[in-house]
Amino acid sequence: MKPQVLVMAASPSAAVMAQFDRHFDCHHVWQLPAAERAACIAKVAPDVRALATTGTIGVDAALAAQLPRLEIVAVNGIGVDAVDFDVLRPRGIAVTNTPGVLTDDVADLAVALLLAAARRIPALDTYVREGQWAKGVALQPARAVRGKVAGIYGFGRIGKAVAARLAAFGMALRYWQPNVVAGTDVPRSASLLALAEESDYLVVCAPGGAATRGLVDETVLAALGAEGTLVNVARGTIVDEPALIAALADGRLGAAALDVFAGEPAVPAALAALPNVVLTPHVGSLTVETRHAMGQLVVDNLLAHFAGQPLLTPVR
């Protein structure tokens, strides 16, 4: 008998979804209208041995309590801040995620957002589409990135990949995170506040969760300054969103380029209305190649677990 798996979200890879149904007895909650999902979970919960979820959906105490036979939570994503480890750990439930395979695409998007904000790409696109060019409307100059300082908050796989890319643009680099990173020539600032003070661009690549919630606050944004730019490809909760909106509206922060938001998919109307922001809908890993690789890693972790083999990417 195939292991029963509760699947909370679909992979865009048809090959991955075919493997789910080939190897497991799947309950695809994502296929149901929102109003019917709770009843479906309650019906199948006694026999579910694995949960396939995402970094955004995660698993909370209430869902875990419904699944008495749960053995493994396989997260399709790198972030696990939505996973309630305090509930899972005492039950010996394994957790996996998908690190590494999405590093390059997320780093690429971080650089794209930084460049879009610096060179005002969305505004220039509108300028052309609305005929302002043909009318001779005056243009506001953009800013070069060469010679500027990019401060990277969170210097793990993605932070390092962002740094390597930005170095090629002639930018100076700094980083900060609580622990010192060995084997890098990039200087570490004394604190997050110091990093913001020393940077023209602050790129957030840190993990989400309680430890980082709201750390990019009014003080940090003020230190980044009226000519500074915030880029966030990590978690929206890391940034104090009301403080960000106020700083952008008042000109105390120059610009922001954001792929993540505190209450996503809802984006504050006041933020969306600002002309000095670039917004994307949490798509750092959304390429055909990476989403397949992420989904494949989820499947491979589940197969390893049920075969009694070591997990490929366990979260310790």
The residue fraction in helices comes out at: 25-40%
Average pLDDT number: 97
Number of domains: 2
Query: Can you write the helix and strand succession as a string?
Result: EHEHEHEHEHHEHEHEHEHEHEH
Provide the gyration radius in Å.
21 Å
The description of the largest β-sheet is: 6 strands, parallel
Helix count equals: 12
Overall body shape? globular
Give the total of beta strands. Answer: 11
CATH class categorisation of the largest domain:
Alpha Beta
Structural class: alpha/beta
- Give the strand content: 15-25%
CATH architecture of the largest domain: 3-Layer(aba) Sandwich
Give start-end ranges of low-pLDDT stretches.
none
Q: Look at the structure and name the CATH superfamily of the largest domain.
A: NAD(P)-binding Rossmann-like Domain
CATH topology of the largest domain: Rossmann fold
Strand order of the largest sheet: 7-6-8-9-10-11
Structure explained in plain terms:
Helices cover about 35% and strands about 15% of the residues. The chain has about 325 residues and is an alpha/beta fold. Strands 7-6-8-9-10-11 form a six-stranded parallel β-sheet, with helices on both faces. The protein has a five-stranded parallel β-sheet with strand order 2-1-3-4-5, sandwiched between helices. Strand 8 (about 200-205), helix 9 (about 220-225) and strand 9 form a beta-alpha-beta unit. Helix 5 crosses helix 7 (about 155-165). The two termini are about 30 Å apart. The mean pLDDT is about 95. Belongs to the D-isomer specific 2-hydroxyacid dehydrogenase family. Pfam families: 2-Hacid_dh, 2-Hacid_dh_C.
